[in-house]
Amino acid sequence: MAKTLVIGANGTVGSELVRLLTGRGHDVFKATSRPATSANDVQVNLASGAGLAQAFKGVEQVFLLTPPGFAKQDDLLIPAIDAARAQGVKKLVLMTAMGANADEAAPLRRAEVHLLRSGLTWNILRPNWFMQNFNTFWIQGILEHGKIFLPVGTAKGSFIDARDIAAVAAQLLSSDALNNQEFDLTGSVALDHDAVAAVLSKATGKAIAFQDIAPEVLRGGLLQAGLPADYAAFLLLILGYFKAGYAERTTDAVQSILGRAPRTLEQYAHDYRAAWASAK
Ligand SMILES: NC(=O)c1ccc[n+]([C@@H]2O[C@H](COP(=O)([O-])OP(=O)(O)OC[C@H]3O[C@@H](n4cnc5c(N)ncnc54)[C@H](OP(=O)(O)O)[C@@H]3O)[C@@H](O)[C@H]2O)c1
After folding, report:
1. For ligand 1, is residue 107 a contact (CB within 6 Å)?
2. 42 inside domain
3. Residue 117, in any domain of the structure
4. What is the C-alpha R_g of the chain?
5. pLDDT one-digit tens code per residue, 230-273
């Protein structure tokens, strides 16, 4: 089976992708920005470029994403695409985000276009907002106050379970049938955050509610948490798109690629309920 390097292998999507590819018999290499601790770890830092010149040696396929925290994602992705091509990679699956192709000047779109013109065999995955944000980025408000604090009003999102994104990536890296195609990945229904809070409340037995906040309140919290100002601005920009309704669209890509429906928010909340066990 193909040698496949997963960038972000210890992260939300990447760790599930490693599990699925290993189960399918791939020879999986795990990229990490930390010192390697096993023979299959490959140390590479997309932000500094350290390790990039060696990272793809002997690798046939790559799953590529940018770690969160960077507003100019093309500065990380384009050198990685170039290094992959230079070192003989055949196929690269790039994960960006739903809406990335709405603006040709957007950093993620620049990286997508660079891949399209690279000569590599490619797929582009554009997932909508992850369900897993409720057990990662937005968890502090839930644990400390029983609240999802976001500046999105009553807008709806067709949240996707990150495990389904990984399953799609694993399928694309295991077959050439869908080469050179792009997919917007969503869950099957769009929900507002009152509905999300109701699902989390039912799964946990806790009273979890949504509270709409002003964007500047969120910006203050993000900066206090140590996020770079440009990345906080990027998050507020895309949350503005959410509020404007751009995250509401659903696609049938997960169903058509996997032959099954996307996981529901109820399934996600059940599977991750331990994450909110200490909520007030
Ligand atoms: N959250 C959402 O709702 C959403 C929606 C659409 C798209 N996305 C996209 O999803 C991506 C994030 O995916 P994810 O949530 O699976 O990631 P994640 O869980 O944050 O994991 C990213 C991994 O990248 C590694 N990493 C950190 N800094 C690095 C560096 N400088 N160089 C190389 N690796 C580094 C880290 O592992 P080590 O510590 O081992 O290095 C980390 O586990 C972003 O590009 C985001 O735009 C997110």
Report:
1. no
2. yes
3. yes
4. 19
5. 999 999 999 999 999 999 999 999 999 999 999 999 999 999 99
